[in-house]
Amino acid sequence: MNATSSFEGLRAALANRSAVIGVIGLGYVGLPLAASAGRAGFTTIGFDIDPAKAEQLNRGQSYIDAVPDEDLAGLVAAGRFTATAAFDRLAECDVIVICVPTPLTRHREPDLSYIEVTGRQVAQRLRPGQLVVLESTTYPGTTREVLKPILETSGLTAGRDVFVGFSPEREDPGNAKFRTTTIPKVVAGDGPEASELVASFYGAVVDVVVPVSTPDVAEAVKITENVFRAVNIALVNELKLIYGAMGIDIWEVIEAAKTKPFGFMPFYPGPGLGGHCIPIDPFYLTWKSREFDIGTRFIELAGEINTAMPNHVVEVLARTLDGRFQTALSASKILVLGLAYKPNVSDVRESPSFRLMELLEARGAKVEFHDPHVPEAPMTREHAEFGGRRSTALTAETLAGFDAVLISTDHDAVDFGLIAEHAQLVVDTRNAMARRGLAGPKVVKA
Predict the structure, then answer these.
(1) How far apart are the first and last CA of the chain?
(2) Is 124 within 8 Å of 154 (Cβ atoms)?
(3) Is 34 in the same domain as 84?
């Protein structure tokens, strides 16, 4: 197949929906994308290294809130979606989308091992006329400098035999206002033909496509979005410390400031950063910038401030226990409310709650957690010691048995009135009690 026929054949298959779509990685990004492709009329194959996960999905049972069971079961029954752990089936796919994790190493440097391993899996099955798109958040240049050379070990040439692109994921778990299809999709290809194919594929799946000139630009878009959030959250976290020392409530300040109809955008403080994006992605840019001998002091300072927040919260808790009850933290029993990193989801990736529990136990406290969305703490790379712990029931009796409740995540499903009535002390990092009219002498903001 020559370059022209490779391009024309794939373009036609995308236009008439006969192209087969493969999505590698069936997590919070990959599964919603695969379901969206299936709903758009494409036959879609989802790939995951866990056979049990694939079997569950093929039974129409979803583990992602954004993909309800009934939607998934309908796609499976219609033959629009199937999941597999057999990566040889990549050869069947005309479009292959890579949605794998991009974590940090213990030294806070990019860990591209998932992209590299997946790229080699794809390269072993690559054939002319395929489009490979990376969605994993990473530093500018990854698609061109890392993924593309791996794919070309197949002996095929990008831009002639196969086509390569990048489109950053923009999923927001728990956000009911937006879903995969309604979030504008930034897209880019490595070369004009790849750019057209990437735009054609996503244009069939989502409502709005935003083309940019190169994969490097698209990668920079996602990094910029998350750096913006990380820096502004760090700013309000620092203001929280300053205003707190002055006896001023940062939450009241923000509520009043956001009434200005221009020139201000509200961000809110918390116990630390959570989720896969904001705590991690800025460090991908700081690492890459060293290649150009450019410092990233602003970004690194924001990281330091946000990383220090769990320590601040624990200090507030320790001082309050000592000052009010003459009780040492080391002799206390603490209930951490919320293991997920944000309200109303089960996603615990990079949740500051793990760090809070770690710090509390290091100081001798006995710690339990309650989370209506996380009945059991999963195993994580950084906090394996908490894997398997069960959520404690939230009752008047159990609350009375704790010296303090530390609100880390304010899920709507939690009975905050019960906490207000029966907890001895509430350390609130989310303004959850005041927003519900439950502020009182036993509530301390941190």
Answers:
(1) 63
(2) yes
(3) yes
User: What CATH number does the domain containing 339 carry?
Assistant: 3.40.50.720
Residue 32 pLDDT: 96
Residue ending a domain, among 179, 213, 247, is: 213
H-run or E-run covering 284 = helix 281-289
Active site residues: 277
Domain end position, chosen among 186, 213, 240: 213
**Residue 224 is assigned to a structural domain of this protein:** no
Compute CA distances 228 → 220, 234, 279, 351, whole Å.
Answer: 12, 10, 12, 19
What digits encode the pLDDT tens for the residues 204-219? 999 999 999 999 999 9
What is the rounded distance in angstroms from the CA atom of residue 199 to the CA atom of residue 194?
9
Residues 73-94: b if buried by 16+ CB within 10 A, e if exposed = bbbbeeebbbbbeebeebeebb
Q: Are residues 45 and 133 in the same domain?
A: yes
Q: Is residue 275 part of a domain?
A: yes
Same domain as 263, residue 191: no
How many domains does one find in the chain?
Answer: 2
- Cα–Cα distance for residue pair 171/34, rounded to 1 Å: 13
420: left (phi > 0), else alpha (psi -120 to 50), else beta? alpha
Helix (H, G, I), strand (E, B) or coil at 439: coil
Q: Give, for 257, the enclosing helix (H) or strand (E).
A: helix 250-257
pLDDT, one tens digit per residue, over 355-384 is 999 999 999 999 999 999 999 999 887 888
Query: Average pLDDT over the chain, rounded to whole?
Result: 95
Specify if 60 maps to a domain.
yes
Same domain, 137 and 235: no
Tell which wins on pLDDT, 176 or 242: 242
Find the mean pLDDT for residues 387-397. 95
223 within a domain of the structure (yes/no): no
Closest CA to 111 of 222, 228, 276: 276
Domain containing 374 equals 229-445
Q: Based on the fold, state whether residues 275 and 390 are members of the same structural domain.
A: yes
Looking at the DSSP assignment, which residues form a beta bridge with residue 211? 187
- Among the listed residues 374, 359, 443, the one whose alpha carbon sits nearest the alpha carbon of residue 407: 443
Structure tokens that stand for 18 in this block: 């006969």
Same domain, 179 and 99: yes
**Whole-angstrom Cα distance, residue 441 to residue 121?**
59
- Which position has the token pair 């330091």? 304
Q: How many Å apart are CA 36 and CA 18, to the nearest integer?
A: 15
**Alpha carbons 265 and 199: distance in angstroms, whole number:** 31
Q: d(Cα 308, Cα 198) in Å, to the nearest integer?
A: 41
pTM value?
0.91
Distances (CA, A) of 88 to 47, 49, 125, 132: 10, 12, 7, 15
